[in-house]
């Protein structure tokens, strides 16, 4: 069965960058940066993304392109008759859970877009916007319908295939995302007293940096690049041998950092200009930003602009998560793609129903003192994704020979032996240690150890 491939180099970079951008860079980064210290957090995040995220991203690219297979089969090719294929299966399970609650947030974006267009977000106070957010996400039928619409958008694109679906959509959405972002940033930085917000993001104040915010930056560096779930393995399996893998990885890292920067510049100047707090947490986008935009001239138009780019980013990530299931179940049989995309996409929607209702009719259902949505989010972000990233960082140098790794990275690339050796050292030694530190923090071991020395 012939393997489908990306039609162009830029198409792959846009698709992979779209997968990485998603909610991590636009929804999660601003509120984590807001609570983590602003400029100091951004600097640490930048450091971790380049030093630790980039090596793992390139590692996933190497596995995918060399194997030319779906995530599960790829690991089997390198380690037959072993349990290493569980990495691919873990990635599929993780993406299944992740997309089930990710699509809920996608639904919230659609609801807000509808409300903004019909004028339902006009003229409220900040407290009223917070209350409105709670009311909107508590409505069962509208949130379920919006979640379904979001999933249908993803299904339609993935069902069309790699070139005609994912690549074509990404080539439109990623440039549009940057254009919309630039419009927002220009408006935001020209507000009165916007300099406070710019300084908050770009001027490091290390007195605001805590051990918790450093670990948040480390975890965000992995989460925001879609690492540890073998999505990038799947995407790289569609690459020709002429593609420059180091250049592709660096391009995606740069795009991801740039989007995080633009998100901060679009949000924080406005937040500070109107005397609001940047540490509002996860509701920053849905409860604080509408209040910020409502005080701007033509604010509704700018907020609709923001919601559109937010939706584009969420969809490009959803494409990659749905694609990993489709690739694993079709084994490159194009005749099965459409049926599998619809079947799996609708199954994910069904799995996401409890998360969708966890702020409404199921709000009293708590597991470990968490709502179903929060439990899924915590499990994926703090357990499954770091575990997958750790296993991949161990697998690549352990199960693929150094000569084979060098050969794969050198194909279509002018990077030399020194670049390879630095990458290999970081992936084999530094990245696993960093991920273990994240795990220890999640389990509470670091707090216990620190308390012993106080």
TrEMBL record:
PROSITE patterns: NA_NEUROTRAN_SYMP_3 (PS50267). Pfam families: SNF. The chain crosses the membrane at residues 12-33, 39-63, 84-114, 144-162, 174-195, 215-238, 250-276, 296-329, 341-362, 382-401, 422-446. It is a multi-pass membrane protein. GO terms for cellular component: membrane. InterPro entries: Na/ntran_symport, SNS_sf, YocR/YhdH-like. Keywords: Membrane, Transmembrane, Transmembrane helix, Transport. It is found in: Membrane. NCBIfam families: Na_transp. This is Neurotransmitter:Na+ symporter, NSS family.
